[in-house]
Amino acid sequence: MPATIRLQSADFDVGAEAALLAHGRADIGALVTFTGICRGEEAGARVVAMTLEHYPGMAEAEIARHVAEAEARWPLLGATVIHRYGRLRPGDNLVLVVTAASHRGEAFAAAEFLMDYLKTRAPFWKKVERADGTVWVDAKSADDAAADRWAERRTAAE
Questions:
Q1: Where does residue 135 rank: exposed (0-12), middle (13-18), buried (19+ CB within 10 A)?
Q2: Tens digit of pLDDT for each residue in 31-77?
Q3: pLDDT in tens, 121-138
Q4: pTM summary value
Q5: Residue among 26, 22, 2 at smallest CA distance from 14
Q6: Which CA distances in Å does 41 have to 20, 120, 126, 132?
Q7: What are 105's strand-pairing partners?
Q8: Which of 25, 78, 127, 141 could make an SS bond with 51 (beta carbons 3.0 to 4.6 A apart)?
Q9: In terms of Cα–Cα distance, which of 142, 29, 25, 120 is closest to 66?
Q10: What is the largest CA-CA distance in the chain?
């Protein structure tokens, strides 16, 4: 089953997306879902809203490239990545990653790999609105380290 990749401003239904991926499939033994939610705090300050921007076409292509890499690393039976853009408020769904595999280890690892990529390398720009003003936010060094470990694993395996 080809991966589903969508960038959208509208909300998504986590349960419906997971059910759609697994519907009628007897080969799936594990389905992992990760939902990222807009937090109400960033760097110790209350968040009023967050705006995500991206380059249409380029962002989907980059995400598809990393989904293909996940499919090459683990025997996935399906994957869904939905990322929202536009203005989001605390508590809003932000990103969904669903991975399906025969076994949980592959599904968990692929979901974590994809989220580490989305958090640090996907072509999105995040602007946070706070009571004291607006600030553009970069990836955190801890997020970069989490993503870098996948490159280290590939090098060690080669």
A1: middle
A2: 999 999 999 998 788 999 999 999 889 999 999 999 999 999 999 99
A3: 788 999 999 988 898 887
A4: 0.87
A5: 22
A6: 33, 19, 14, 13
A7: none
A8: 127
A9: 120
A10: 53
